[in-house]
Amino acid sequence: MDQTYRAAAFLDKGGTGKTTTVAHVGVAAQHRGHDVLLIDLAGKQGDLAKHFGVWDDYQQAIEQDEAWPNISTVFDDSWSTIAEKLGEDPLADLVIETDEGVDLIPAHPGLDTLDSELGNIDDARKRYSRLEEFLDNYVDPLGYDIVLIDLPGMTNNVSYNGLWAAGHAITPVEMGPFEAEQADALRQDLNKIADNFAVEIELALVLPNKVDTRTKLAEEYLAAFKDEYPEAIAPDYVPYSQDIRNAAQRGMTAFSLEDPSSTARHAKETYLGAADTLLDRLGGGDHA
Ligand SMILES: Nc1ncnc2c1ncn2[C@@H]1O[C@H](COP(=O)(O)OP(=O)(O)O)[C@@H](O)[C@H]1O
Ligand SMILES: [Mg+2]
Question: Which of 63, 121, 241, 286 could form a disulfide with 127 if both were Cys (CB 3.0 to 4.6 A apart)?
């Protein structure tokens, strides 16, 4: 691929599987032979880094004031000056390699105040396009095939930056009435941003997650989501899998489990198919 594609995981709600999705779709794309960078904007708790077992070391670096530059630095007014001083490869200390092959820019406590700092930028286009500028100028030259961004489970200046920069949203949904409403609100949100700022933000992948098909209700919601998002629905769903939860707690994705359960195997297949579909859709669009 001669271009870096981008997508951001977003839903105005916590716990539906955004971080899990970014981790697994990322590793799935890696398994398909793509170079993958994950970026954690979801908050200082560092969930994405935990998912790859690299948070403890990073947290130590943070405590010793050595995690610099970090993800919040790149939003700074003076980032381009900083980057220049850092020399040839300004992202060398920002990007971490993981055991599963994907690279990662972890979260940082500086994300805490980032939302209000962005809020101080009067011009809305400038407020929402900081991340895009960073990706265009500093990440794209690194030649990744795809950059996946994990976002906070709320609509704020940080998540807008992620959506704006990515141009494509990935939305994990659980099978319930609340999620159906949230996904619909998200679609309206994306349209609103598009109208206000003349930028395209598409819902590229709706991924049903934690599905328990033993319940009739889950089947009904699956069918409803399929009807509602024919252009974005993933080819398959991710089942509820205790293995996914356990793997996350051990600092790995389901792809690294030695003896995956049948639900974990199903999940891996779904994530591989979802990665293929996502890359198709990103490649088929005209997002540069
Ligand atoms: N398919 C799944 N089966 C079982 N547990 C899951 C599944 N997907 C996510 N989880 C668990 O649900 C919790 C919330 O997921 P997470 O990805 O952190 O959500 P979010 O980032 O949207 O807050 C985590 O403990 C995660 O391990
Ligand atoms: Mg999360």
Answer: 121
Question: In this structure, are residues 206 and 180 in contact, taking their beta carbons and an 8 Å threshold?
Answer: no
Structure tokens at 111: 């994300």
Pick the residue whose CA is nearest to atom 25 on ligand 1: 245
Pocket test for ligand 1, best of 22, 245, 268 (most atoms within 8 A of CB): 245
The mean per-residue pLDDT over the stretch 168-176 comes to 92
- Spatial CB neighbours of 265, under 8 Å, sequence gap ≥ 6: none
Around ligand 1, the residues with Cβ closer than 6 Å are 14-20, 47, 153, 209-210, 238, 240-241, 244-245, 248
Looking at the DSSP assignment, which residues form a beta bridge with residue 150?
A: 9, 40
State pLDDT tens for residues 32-81.
999 999 999 999 999 999 999 999 999 999 999 999 999 999 999 999 99
Instruction: List the structure tokens of 66.
Output: 């050595």
Report the alpha-carbon distance of residue 44 to residue 172 in Å, rounded.
21
Measured over the CA atoms of residue 252, residue 258, residue 259 and residue 262, the dihedral's sign is: positive
In the chain, the domains with their CATH numbers are 5-284 (3.40.50.300)
Q: pLDDT digit string (tens) for 222-237?
A: 988 898 889 999 999 9
Q: How far is the CA of 18 from the centre of ligand 1 (A)?
A: 7
Instruction: Say how many Å lie between the CA of residue 42 and the centre of ligand 2.
Output: 6
Ligand 1: residue whose CA is nearest its atom 23: 15
